[in-house]
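Support reply, case 0932

Customer input (verbatim):
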Amino acid sequence: MGIFNAIKDAIFGGAEQVQQSVAQAQGLPQMGQPAAAAPGLGQAGAQAAPVDVEAVLTEKMRAKGNPALNWKTSIVDLMKLLDLDSSLDNRKDLASELGYTGAKDGSAEMNIWLHRRVMEELAKNGARVPAAMQD
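Our regenerated output:
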């Protein structure tokens, strides 16, 4: 899944940056450091928290100066926010990767399906995605 993996990698990589910033601010160990490096963190602290998609994408929006992108419902805006090619050809390829069976014509139906399916796949891959963004 080439295009989906690019989306996932952009979000999960962004999550790592957000988590490291929070860890530094709170004096917690950064990713890759043992949990024992932080006093008071037991086994629960050693386990990685699920990636919070909404937090990561909100931070990306803030870092870009809050551009007018509706990433919460638009696959095109989501891809733009992640600096990925949002062209119709790329969305057609993504639709094929994710198993879309309708007409690959860039219709609202296709784009809405793509957004929801991407969010579902992110959730299957360990991300925390708001229920409103999934089927």
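We compared this against your earlier run and they match. Two observations from our side: The CA atoms of residues 76 and 104 lie 14 Å apart. Residues 2-133 form one domain. Please reopen the case if you see a mismatch on your end.
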